[in-house]
Each structure stands twice: as C-alpha cells, then as structure tokens.
C-alpha cells in the first residue's frame, strides 16, 4: 500500500488531527502564552542592553549599571522558568494525544474485516501505529509550537527593528522574500521524499516481522544468505531514500542560514556608518544587532519545522488511509442480540467471492444443519471448505444468498452476540504472547478454573499443568515454544471453553498423533452431543465424529449423506478422502 500521488491537499489530513487537540486546547493555550511570555522576556534583554550602553556606560554611572544588569538577569531567569513550564506541558499533552490516536487506530484495526488485513502488510500497519504516530507527536509537541512562537518572534522583532531604524529594519524584513521562495521549493520536494521513506520503512518492518516469524523455515532451508541479501536490498533502498531526504534538509538549512548571515553583514556595515554619522546611537546599534541575532534561530529552524510539518502531513495521510477505511462487516441497523439459540444452521443459495477477485469460491450452497447435528465438510484441498465455515461467524460475509441461525440471517444478529454463540478453532492456531489462562479465556473473566480444566481435558491439553507456572505460564509469541499439536489442542480448548451453541472446527486435529487424535475425538464425541457443529475434515478418521457429510467440489455441494452412504454411492467422495489422506490437490483428483 504505497503513496500514488493522487491525494488531497497535504494539509487536509493533518488538519483533521485537530479533534484530538480539542481536549488539550486549554493546556495548549496556556502553553502558547508561556512561550510568548518567554519570548517577550528574551526580547526585553536587548532593549535593556541599549539602556545600559546609552546610559550608565556612556555616563560612567556604576550604580545604574548594577540595576540594569540585575533587570537583565531577572528577565533571563523568567525566560528559563517559562521554557521549563512550556517544554514539560507540551510533552505531556502531546503524549496524551498520541495515546488517544493510537488507541483509536488499534480499535479501528480490530473492527476492520479480515479481507482488509489479507490485503495489507502487517509491517505497514505496524509502522503507522508506531513510527507515524511518533512523527505526529513530535510535530504537535515541538514543530507546531515552534512554528507559532517563531513566527510571532519574527514579526515582533522585525517591528522593533523598524522602530529602532526603519531603513535597516525594512532591509531585514525584505530578507523574508527569498526565505519564502526557498521554503516553498523545499516543502514540495521534501513531502514526496518523506512519504517514500515512511512507506519503505513499513516494507522493512514487514520483512523483519516475516523473517522473525519464519526463522525456523529460513534456517531449515538454509536460506539465511538469501534473506539477508533481500533485507540488505530493502535496507539499502531505505538508506538511500533517507540520505536523499537528509541532503534536501541539509541544503535547505544551509540556504536558510545564509540569508540572515548576509543580512547581518549588511546591517553591521550600514549600522556602523549610521552611528559614525550620528544618526544612530551606539546603544541602538547594539540593541538592533542583538535583536537581529534573535532571528537567526527562528530562520535556521525554519527548515526543521517545515520538514517536521511535511513528515507529519504524510504520517497523517498514512494513518487516515486506515481510519478512512470503513468496516464492511458491521451490525446492520435493527440487528438484535441473541442470548439463547437452538443452533439450527442453514446455508441458503450461498455464493461467495473474495474481495478484489472476480471468481466465486462458493456457488449456490444449500445446507441444512439441524440443532445438535454434526456436519462434516469433505473436499480436496482448495475446494472452499475453510471459506464456507468462515461465513458462519461472519469472518467474511456472503456475496449472495444468506446464512441463518434459527431462521434469522446472521447479518441481523449483533456481531458480539453471534460470536459468543459460535466457537471456532482453525487448523493453523493463533496463540498470543500471554499466559495459557489468558490465551484460553481471551478476556472472558467469568470463566472458572473448572471450566478451563474441562476444556483442557476435552482437548487432551492437560500438559499445561506440567509447565513451569501451570496456567500462568507465558507461552511466547505465536506459541512457538509449544509443538504444533500442543498449539492445536490449546486452540481447540479455547473454542469449546465457552460452551458455544454452534461449533466450527476447521480440521483442528491435523497436527496430532494418531493416539492423541483418538483421545480427542472420543472426548469431542461427548462435547458435540447436543451442539451444532460444522467440521472441516481432512483426515478420513475424523469423519466418524459427524452425523452427516457434505462433499464440496469445485465450490459446490456435490452430495450430502452419511459417511457410509457416500462411500458406497459417490466415487468422488471416496476419491476426495483418498486425496486428503495422501495430500493430493483438487486438480490431480479431477484428471
């Protein structure tokens, strides 16, 4: 997901961030007032110096010198105290805003449909929630404040310079023209470089994440040099983009620095001549030069402020690419919460096509699963079995037809309610970097230890009690500290722990040895009694759990019946079971 250049005005999405600023508006106003007061104190010092030079020094009055010196020191102390207050306040408010935005982005990612996550690289999403939000925080805490304060400082100082000596003051004011031209050219080039670098940073994050998760595969195939080369190419591209971006910033900073220095040189020469002619006092010249020196930092920082603002604009664009994506699987208006269910599941003329593709995966599916019945879905690899059962908990929505629970379209049932009624265990289990207990309950606080024990017994996962801290043992990211069979058993326990009315099992026993599989199947027989179940079968031995079997071929239901009936009368069913047992694809079976 990269920048295509067809965006609205760069400031548009950054301006939308203002809603996160509103809760901190009072704090931001106080912060700005403190910044203006600190700037006022710093501006007052050169004016005091003018009085010192034209007064006590010119008249050799030591007493007056001490008083004015003390006044200058007081202004310096006030400025230091105000800067401390400003920095501390702006950091706290910016971190609060960053946290709120991050929470909103994460919550929105959780609401977005599976199809969205299928199309996006996880590293790109990660970089938006981390690096991009850090860029916005820096802009809100420093860039925005400095932009306001430095602009006010520039205008105030130039006005004072014109008041002290208007010809020289106008000269300093005229130096803003080349600065404006330089900043305009710089911002146009920098925003493209900034967006390109942030996209490439997301690509590198994706590669690092994939390499970490696939480390066993990389090592097993001896592909470490290949992956290192691939990472090196991505990192080199990011490095070159960053160098180019740094070159732009360095060149612009040098130009921004050149303008005030040349202006200062002209002012020193012209000012000295004016003092010599008696049209300006020495104290006025000292004050003029001191005030003009105060403009060097606002001008030198202009490049950094523009760069920070450009990065914040592209970061806001990238964040709103996510926030502006509407969830497609949501509660319909008028959807209801269902607490009790008989578990009567029907697929009525269901058609399904994955988003972004044109070929239907499922066509005209008609199935009637009676309450308490277990229906096995059999078919060769790639025929659409997982797609079919994913429609039940609305991981995807049908493209045509409907799926019903007790006669009600599942799209008319509130998502939270539906997913409490439907338990799911997939062939490729996902475990989180948390304790065993937390992985099993996933926030379901009402779950008791007895319910956990029963679920673990059904899944033959009592091994968790032998772990160092039992249920409180952290199992690491993706559960890779466990074997594949152990991960599957924990995922199965998680599916049955809530006593769901409908159970969707996508071959959750594929990684188990024959002995453990037999024990799990025996326990599941008791669990499935009275529970409506959709069971995706890849092993012929698992079919025995089902009351009926549906044969799925080429995205359509080819036959429905008991295992023995289909085995006797449907050659394609026998072929599908044989193909699954041997790992043969659908194409081979059809030849």
Automatic annotation (TrEMBL):
Residues 29-311 form the ABC transmembrane type-1 domain. It is found in: Cell membrane. It is a multi-pass membrane protein. The keyword Transmembrane helix applies. It holds the Pfam family ABC_tran. Residues 345-579 form the ABC transporter domain. The chain crosses the membrane at residues 24-45, 65-85, 139-162, 168-187, 258-276. The keyword ATP-binding applies. One of its GO terms (molecular function) is ATP hydrolysis activity. Keywords: ATP-binding, Cell membrane, Membrane, Nucleotide-binding, Transmembrane, Transmembrane helix, Transport. Its main location: membrane. One of its GO terms (cellular component) is plasma membrane. Belongs to the ABC transporter superfamily. Lipid exporter (TC 3.A.1.106) family. This is ABC transporter ATP-binding protein. The lineage of its organism: Bacteria, Bacillati, Actinomycetota, Actinomycetes, Micromonosporales.
